[in-house]
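User: Design a sequence. Structure:
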């Protein structure tokens, strides 16, 4: 992967000239236009306590953003009830993402997500749960499609950054690929526990690798802009979803990280990964 990223860095000047940008940094300014700037966290006080065992969540995220040379860490607003969350989302219209735990004080998280959709509140909603029996039952009942994604909290606060970046990557994929041909890495894994554990690691490695490739001679503003051109990580949970991205953006795919068994044609296929490798 490092060779591919290095080659991308060396050829960026010619890419910008080809797309009509006299100043190479002008092109970077047009990348990642859709950002997660405000997050609404819906959780009980107990869940918040578990999140903040190692420090205040917002401060940890902010520190990680600075360390990775990412611009502007998102603001975090917490409420305990679905009623307050809906009121804020409808009234202030500034939130780009809703993260909810299973333990919302006035209703079940699934009902809360359904209510968000019913009220046509156009904000992605992600379930951040703890790995317990309640979540396992929820997954077995297949009541989770109402969420845009599901992640498990395993003590690593970087999961919040992985959630943010995963969503931003998909929101900006088409535009940024057309703009300068930003590369991507396709990750195929349907097990929530597994991808929740390794997605923060993948993002940290890709972001650190991109940061190392940035010339030390440029100023901090230009470094922030250059970070926008890092490869996008496309997390997929089915054969069809991965095929959709590969068929459309395969020319820009640096690599594929895949499980062997995952859903294909609506059923778990024990050889889906092998079949995808022959795609």
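Assistant: Done.
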């Amino acid at each position: 992967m490092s060779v591919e990223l290095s080659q991308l860095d060396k050829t960026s000047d010619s890419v910008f000239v080809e797309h009509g940008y006299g100043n190479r940094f002008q092109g970077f300014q047009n990348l990642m236009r859709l950002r997660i700037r405000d997050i609404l966290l819906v959780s009980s006080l107990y869940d918040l306590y578990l999140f903040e065992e190692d420090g205040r969540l917002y401060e940890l995220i902010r520190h990680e953003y600075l360390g990775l040379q990412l611009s502007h860490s998102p603001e975090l607003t917490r409420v305990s009830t679905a009623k307050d969350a809906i009121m804020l989302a409808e009234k202030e219209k500034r939130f780009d993402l809703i993260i909810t735990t299973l333990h919302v004080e006035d209703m079940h998280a699934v009902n809360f997500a359904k209510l968000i959709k019913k009220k046509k509140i156009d904000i992605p909603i992600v379930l951040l749960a703890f790995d317990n029996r309640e979540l396992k039952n929820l997954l077995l009942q297949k009541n989770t499609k109402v969420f845009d994604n599901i992640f498990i909290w395993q003590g690593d606060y970087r999961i919040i950054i992985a959630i943010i970046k995963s969503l931003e990557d998909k929101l900006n994929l088409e535009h940024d690929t057309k703009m300068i041909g930003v590369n991507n890495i396709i990750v195929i894994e349907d097990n929530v526990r597994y991808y929740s554990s390794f997605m923060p690691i993948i993002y940290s490695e890709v972001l650190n690798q991109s940061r190392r490739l940035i010339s030390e001679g440029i100023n901090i503003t230009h470094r922030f802009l250059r970070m926008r051109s890092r490869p996008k990580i496309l997390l997929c949970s089915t054969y069809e979803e991965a095929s959709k991205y590969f068929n459309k953006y395969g020319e820009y795919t640096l690599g594929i990280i895949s499980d062997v068994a995952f859903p294909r044609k609506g059923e778990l296929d024990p050889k889906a990964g092998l079949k995808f490798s022959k795609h």
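The longest strand covers residues 125-130. The beta strands are 38-42, 75-79, 97-100, 125-130, 149-153, 184-188, 232-236, 253-258, 262-264, 267-269.
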